[in-house]
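Something for you to look into today, if you have time. Just paste the record in under my message, thanks.
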Amino acid sequence: MQDVKPRLDRDARREAILDVASDVFLEEGYANASMSMIAARLGGSKGTLYNYFKNKEELFAAYVVRHCAWQRDAMFEIGSEPGDIRQALTKVGRTYLSIVLSDFSMANFRVIVAEALRTPEIGHAFYEAGPRSGAKLLGAILQKAVDSGQLEIDDPVHAAHQFIGLCQNRMLKARLCQAMAAPTPEEIDREVLPAVKVFLAAYGANA
């Protein structure tokens, strides 16, 4: 039992560090943030940070992966069986836009993309843990709909990218340009419902 508790404490401490680091990165940006700044906000020494992360780059990478995992888990809280694919796509689309286009997610996205220009590895990690992983999960949902006879798709992951693009294209550009605030549920539906209709017109088994 003594072997278990230290690992649990270590995990909790690591999460606490990432919570603080996330706030600092969002407030200061990656370039201006420092291990000393994060340690001071955490209420410990830099040595504590270095017990978990060997440098700021590694800490930032962990922050990126954790943020992507949180988004992915929130977006795909859907049963293993999609049931009616129209309902499943509508749920995914609504949840996706409400999360990705939120002020919190947009702030994280800007910080990550800005650093990706200097450190391509960060951009690659973000893409793999975020957009690509999400498309794979949606692709698995689409494959089940293919297996149940609701859809006719040769490449479910490719189709998943297309559906996400249909949902987000206009609003994502507007949000990145600061041309609109975070969308309301009604505004989200005006994007998602037509996207579902177009997608099913292309890939529905009875289309």
Q: What stands out?
A: Residues 1-9 have pLDDT under 50 and may be disordered. Residues 73 and 134 are 9 Å apart (CA to CA).
